Amino acid sequence: NSRGASSLLKDSIPITEFSASGPFEGHDLLLRGFKSVKNELMPSHPLELSEKNFQLNQDKTNFDTLRNIQGLYAPLKLQMEFRAVKQVQRLPFLHSSNMALDTLRGNDECIGFEDILNDPSQSEVMGEPHMMMEHKLGLL
């Protein structure tokens, strides 16, 4: 046999191609941490994305209407008021109802899903005040 060992080396597959990559790769917890399945999920219904962005779309439509009726100044003033009202909050461990924001949006007289079933006083989770403040201030 004249070809010998050199023909075996020439026809062999490099070992680097056997590395775990591609669709059958094992997830390495030490290098990459835990996988987040939530980020990989696709919307289950075509209207899900629309419903998630409902308030944003509603505000955009209201700003466009206001701009067409009253000019450029009115929506800019309202956006500045929204931004100022969103910054005012209670301490992190106390629920902030943000009533001023609801009043600006015109939702103060409406009873919605979040008014009844999203009551934080009935929530089972209450954080420790000192830990939550330290987390907000970046001390933890």
UniProtKB/TrEMBL annotation:
GO terms for biological process: proteasome assembly. InterPro entries: Ump1. Keywords: Chaperone. It comes from the Eukaryota. Signal peptide: none annotated. One of its GO terms (cellular component) is nucleus. Belongs to the POMP/UMP1 family. This is POMP protein. It comes from Nyctiprogne leucopyga.
